Amino acid sequence: MLHLNKPVHPYRESRHLLLSFENSKNDIIASPSPLITNPPIPNVGMYDRVRAVGSCNGLVCISVSYNHCGTKDDLLFLLWNPAIGQSRFLPKPKCSTVSPSVIFEFGYVPETNDYVIVKLDKEERLRFEVYKSSLDSWRVIDSAVVENHITLKRDESSVFVNGCFHWRSLNYARDRIISYELVSEKVGLIKALDNGVAGSECWKLTVVEDSLAMLFYNYIMFELWIMVDYNVHDSWDLRFRIVDDGNRLLYPLGCLRNGLIMITYEEDYVGVYLHDLITEQKTEISKVPHGWRINGFSSYSETLLPLC
């Protein structure tokens, strides 16, 4: 995870960009931002595996997995405020072992002033566990509406829109978008769009103009479709189509709420760019060495409020 020490765009709101990246052996969390003076993550051992879950209101949620006495990895979650150096571990989930299929998300519910962690695990059937800061505990959520024969992508972040987390899922017959509403705690399914161009796995979710959106890509071009009316399949609308005429591989990471698309061009290195869809201006914000993979991003802004 990387905190970039520059605003997202010179004439847009001044926030920091949070990138999470990893290779086959390590997850790295660093902060070169002068505003938070590069603090180390407290209470985390050098051999523990750490992963950025997300950032809300200046708080960063980190998953920490560690091997205990040669058994399966145990899982803990750490809430961390880098600006003031405070952190605390949360209670263990009901199932605290780590599997290759586990996915985590971090969000905030303003209606109840709750910070929420959603944990999905798909070993036998889809299992939702939800942590709420107001209760300081975990509970299991019914997910019977979701089919058993689906595939979730662990290295893709969810998107949050309309009060719900959304995940891309694949099954043998058709693609679906899994939703989880934070207030009602209900799990649902949304039919995904088939644009007839890219392969079934070459799409991902994002948010544009506070609407659910899908990015289709085949590494030399991508299309952006927006669901104008939430959960209305006929309302998908094509907004942008970008074709790269060079020799670079084109991979969209997603959209920021200010309308910029993050795109990774792979040449001699992996370059991370901001692409303004209105002006078509490209700005390089980071270079990532080969062997490292970016698996998610979000915006981050500092807060001086203490942890509860």
Q: What's the total count of β strands?
A: 24
Spatial separation of the terminal alpha carbons: 24 Å
Shape: globular
DSSP helix count?
0
Proportion in helices = under 10%
Quote the beta fraction.
over 45%
The computed structural class is: mainly beta
Gyration radius over CA: 19 Å
Order of helices and strands: EEEEEEEEEEEEEEEEEEEEEEEE
Describe the main β-sheet briefly: 5 strands, antiparallel
Roughly what is the average pLDDT, rounded to an integer?
74
Describe the model.
The chain is mainly β and 308 residues long. It has no helices and 24 strands. It has strands at 2-3, 16-22, 49-56, 59-67, 73-81, 86-89, 103-109, 114-122, 126-132, 137-141, 150-152, 159-161, 164-171, 175-181, 187-191, 203-208, 211-217, 221-227, 236-243, 249-255, 260-266, 270-276, 282-288, 293-300. Strands 11, 12, 13, 14 and 15 form a 5-stranded antiparallel β-sheet that branches. A 4-stranded antiparallel β-sheet has the order 3-4-5-6, with no helix packed on it. Strand 16 (203-208) and strand 17 form a beta hairpin. The radius of gyration is 19 Å and the shape is globular. The two termini are 24 Å apart. Mean pLDDT is 74; it is low at 1-14 and 29-38.
A few lines on this structure:
The chain is mainly β and 308 residues long. The chain is 0% helix and 51% strand. The strands form six sheets. Strands 11, 12, 13, 14 and 15 form a five-stranded antiparallel sheet that branches. Strands 3-4-5-6 form a four-stranded antiparallel sheet, with no helix packed on it. A four-stranded antiparallel sheet has the order 7-8-9-10, with no helix packed on it.
